[in-house]
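Example 3.2
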Amino acid sequence: MHKFQPETLGYIAGALTTLSLVPQVIQVYRTRSTKDVSLGMFALFSLGVLSWLLYGLWIDSTPVIWANAITLALALSVLYAKWRWR
């Protein structure tokens, strides 16, 4: 019998939270509008995700590292759009 590994839950959680940003990124780049995007929220969120990424590197946790690296890239793309199309 296959034993459920804690890392499996980490990969599932990471995939779900990372994928949650995809609709926002698509919306921003499709409409080229960021008027309803909170700069403060995305800036703080990005700092938090960067902290999680650094933590994942520190403890050498693959699910934490990959999920937060991708999430940070998505969040930074929204921040870039906010700056670019202000």
